[in-house]
Amino acid sequence: MPIPTDVLTQLEHQSIELPSWAFGNSGTRFKVFATPGTPRTIEEKIADAAQVNALTGLAPAVALHIPWDKVGDYTVLADYAGELGVKLGTVNSNTFQDDDYKFGSLTHSDPAIRSKAIDHMYECLEVMDATGSRDLKIWLADGTNYPGQGDIRARQDWLADSLSKVYDRLGDEQRLVLEYKFFEPAFYHTDVPDWGTSYVHCAALGEKALVCLDTGHHAPGTNIEFIVAQLLRLGKLGSFDFNSRFYADDDLIVGAADPFQLFRIMHEVIRGGGLDPANNVAFMLDQCHNVEGKIPGQIRSVLNVQEMTARALLVDTTALNAAQNSGDVLAANAVLMDAFYTDVRANLAEWRESRGLPADPTAAFAASGYQEKINVDRQGGQQAGWGA
Ligand code: AOS
Ligand code: ZN
Ligand code: ZN
User: Fold this and answer.
1) CA separation (Å) from 288 to 25, 139, 261, 293?
2) Distance 372 CA to ligand 3 centre (A)
3) ipTM score over 0.85, yes or no
4) Which enzyme type, at the first EC level (predicted)?
């Protein structure tokens, strides 16, 4: 069955931001395996990301992480990225790898530590000024491990105060996206554990503060598409960190563990207008490739998102509405499942070719010789950042 033209038109605008750290070596607390060809610098990470974009047409931006991707001149870095056909995207802050943040950063009881964390956010905003990036992402490792360890209520007040100081420095075109996570590295309580807490802070801050939804940051069984629907309804869904999980915050390839969940999420994204570029929802990957190839892993990831988006665009909304409104439970469910079970891979391959892209980006990458070349050229590749 051919994919309708209006579906293809909507797919043309799809863009998925790649995280610079996906190209670095990563692993678990047990072992980080070194991979041949791993980038040694942010320039090499960007070069690898540019390969993904060149072969899929889906990944025109690379997210930075400060301090992992520190350089002397970010304008030069932005120009370099531009020459490779990509731009620099979200700037990810890091207030989790400094001894001072052992008991919190933006939520710390000590004003001096909070101030240090706020200064780091200001530094990230300066990077954004130079790169032209729109979004500052704040993910906090803040929390406690034992009941009574911290004043969980006061920490909310300190957080609100710290965030407002960051918010006040945002430029007209800049936004702050606040990511939530219900556990890890803290296990008893996390200061931004859920979408509601993130929403409460973002709503208090103003329209330039939005929620970042990382698909791996929910308890098993959570209905993530409901959260997507609600945040889009409220105009507060700023960005996604896409990945998939079997157990914890696994950061595996999006759509690998549960393609149906990704389909359901994309269905609500489309329903809520989130695919319309005018609504400014950023679709980012937040993944690590511990045992698989990093560039092929990123290629697979963006294609998974595209495939499930295409399937979600195939939902017959007229038939769905009719079935929903007439209370025909099974018919409504069947409409959704019909779209989900439609294999669009051959159609997308054909469409790619018609746009001058390889039908099979993975095969094209394997045939390109790029991996073999970087395996030789690059010695001593970098760890992604965690534990560094
Ligand atoms: C941590 O669990 C979060 O998912 C972060 O978004 C991210 O992995 C880290 O901050 C890298 O930037
Ligand atoms: Zn994340
Ligand atoms: Zn995470």
Assistant:
1) 8, 17, 20, 10
2) 31
3) yes
4) isomerase
Q: Which protein residue's CA is at the shortest distance from atom 7 of ligand 1?
A: 286
- Report the nearest atom of ligand 1 relative to the CA of 212: 6
> Two tokens at 204?
């208090």
CATH number at residue 190: 3.20.20.150
Pairing of strands 135-138, 282-285: unpaired
| Residue 58 included in any domain | yes
Average pLDDT, the chain: 97
Task: Supply the range of the domain harboring residue 139.
Answer: 14-313+369-377
Whether 378 and 44 have beta carbons less than 8 Å apart is answered as: yes
Cα 248 to ligand 3 centroid, rounded to whole Å: 9
Q: Where are the alpha helices (DSSP H) in 194-258?
A: 195-205, 224-233
pLDDT digits (tens, 9 = 90+) for 136-157: 999 999 999 999 999 999 999 9
Residue 121: which of 129, 382, 80 has the closest Cα?
A: 129
User: Does residue 388 belong to any structural domain of this protein?
Assistant: no
165-176: buried (b, 16+ CB within 10 Å) or exposed (e) per residue?
bbbeebeeebbb
How many distinct structural domains can be found in the chain? 1
- Residues pairing with 282 in the sheet: 239
Distance 251 CA to ligand 3 centre (A): 7
Assigned domain for 383 exists: no
Largest Cα–Cα separation, the chain? 64
Q: Report the first-to-last Cα separation within the chain, whole angstroms.
A: 50
| Length of the chain in terms of residues written | 388
Residue 8 CB neighbours (<10 A) = 17
Which residue spans within 104-167 are E strands per DSSP? 135-138, 143-144
Question: Rounded distance, CA 287 to CA 298, Å?
Answer: 9
Q: Model pTM greater than 0.95?
A: yes
Closest CA to 95 of 153, 137, 131: 137
373 lies in a domain?
A: yes
Amino acid at 62: V
